[in-house]
Amino acid sequence: MGDKLTLNLDERTVQGKKVALLRQEGLVPGVIYGPGIDPVNIQLEVNVMEKAYRQAGTHSPVHLVVGKDKMIAMIKEVDRDPVRGTLRHISFHAVNAKETVIAEIPIRLTGQGESEAERNGLVVLQALEKIEVKALPMNLPDAIEISILDLKEAGEKLTLAEVTLPEGVEFVEHDSGHGDDDEEKPSVTDQMVASVWEPAALQAANESAAGDAEDESEVTSENGTEEVAVNEDEVAKS
């Protein structure tokens, strides 16, 4: 779970179109919101905020200090300039240290390059990059780790059932909403994390998938351009 990050933020008085001036000065505007608190407009140097986002992502709690106020929050959303990729706005969601939260945690394969499968020229392919867990904010792990050292032959796979979670951390089960009530629904632990492939078989599978994608593209173009839904909710970015 590691050491949690602490950010000292300045309260922001500038709003609306004048926020652009803050960005010109190398500052990122943001907001802190959550149950039981009034939204707090904040600002911080862009390089500090970028470093914090790289370290915490949206899955690790951050200690925030705004003047005399201290709170625990998680990065809920970041907005970037679509052309330059620069950070334009950040939203923090304040959480209660004594209440469980749900977060998407990255999955990290350990022992890469050291398994018997890889030493024999096979490929270990990661199939799942992240997974939702629930825990108290300060118990959220930085990553879910699973070892691939015992993989040996093509066709072998690892699932979430083989992950040992830290104490107080649980996977989030989702009801698929399909099938009869009497049917046994698949568990989240049945999800495949990694599998072993022969290089030739993996290449063939990739080529087949690429061919299917091209076919779908041709069908779309023949039947006209697909309508794209655009989210125009920009309220939180001021």
Report on the structure:
This protein has helices spanning 19-24, 46-56, 116-119, 199-222; strands at residues 5-11, 27-34, 37-45, 62-66, 69-80, 87-95, 101-110, 123-126, 130-135, 144-147, 157-159, 170-171, 192-197. A hairpin with a 2-residue loop joins β2 and β3. It is globular and about 60 Å long. The protein contains four helices and 13 strands. It has 238 residues and is α+β, with helices and mostly antiparallel strands. It has two domains: 5-95, Beta Barrel (Ribosomal Protein L25, Chain P); 101-173 and 187-218, RNA Polymerase Alpha Subunit, Chain A, domain 2. The two termini are 33 Å apart. The strands form three sheets. A six-stranded mixed beta barrel has the order 1-3-2-6-5-4. Strands 10-7-9-12 form a four-stranded mixed sheet, with no helix packed on it. Strands 8-13-11 form a three-stranded antiparallel sheet. The longest helix is centred in the C-terminal third of the chain and has 24 residues, at 199-222.
Could you provide a short overview of the structure?
With 238 residues, this protein is an alpha+beta fold. The protein is built from four helices and 13 strands.
